[in-house]
Design brief:
212 residues; three-stranded antiparallel sheet
Length: 212
């Protein structure tokens, strides 16, 4: 090193130049610069994330943003169904009420039949029974049993089922009287036949009789 350079170096060390800014301002400027850089980095990361989301959405949707159609054979198929349809059961066309009267071991059975039935035709005339015919006499016959002895009933005669005329009515009649040989509980069964939309049909009824 020459003497001239050595002299200048010594002067600089002995008398350094004054700072160009207040130290606190310099530190603030440095921190602000760092924060700007971090903010810029966050913006770049956010932009990159948005780009990645856009690419992902582009992969799962087709043009126009519609969801893709899956043609995988094993994929379950969605079936849209409405509320279950409940069909109410129609009421029985004929109602049978068994009305027993018990005195000791003797039972008197009255029966009430009511409802709707078609008027049958009488053979060989092939004419409808009169509309004033009692409702029981519109039946094709009855069968009953007291649970002891021979069964009973009635025959409707030579009638054919037809659907020409419908009648609604009711009738109460005495079926029979029976005296049991010994005390106990017995099952009385009854059925009556009427004419309906699909031909002759039966309506059944039963009850337990207790005699002493």
């Amino acid at each position: 090193m020459t003497d001239d350079l050595k002299s200048r170096f010594e002067q600089l060390v002995a008398d350094p130049p004054p700072p160009s800014a207040v130290p606190s301002e310099a530190v603030f400027n440095r921190v602000r610069t760092v924060r700007r850089r971090r903010a810029t980095g966050v913006a770049l990361v956010a932009a990159a994330g948005a780009t990645a989301v856009a690419l992902a959405l582009g992969n799962v949707t087709d043009i126009g943003g519609a969801p893709p159609v899956t043609n995988s054979p094993g994929a379950p198929k969605s079936v849209i169904t409405g509320p279950p349809t409940v069909t109410p059961k129609p009421p029985p066309p004929i109602e049978v009420q068994l009305l027993p009267t018990v005195k000791g071991r003797t039972v008197t059975m009255n029966v009430k039949v009511s409802g709707k039935a078609f008027i049958p035709t009488v053979q060989p005339e092939n004419t409808l029974l009169p509309a004033t015919t009692p409702f029981l006499d519109l039946s094709g016959g009855t069968d009953f049993s007291f649970g002891e002895g021979m069964p009973g009933g009635s025959d409707g005669g030579a009638l054919d089922c037809t659907t020409k005329q419908l009648k609604q009515g009711s009738d109460t009649y005495l079926a029979d009287t029976h005296t049991y040989k010994k005390p106990g509980s017995y099952k009385f069964t009854y059925r009556v036949m009427y004419c309906g939309t699909k031909g002759w049909f039966y309506t059944n009824a039963s009850t337990t009789l207790t005699v002493r």
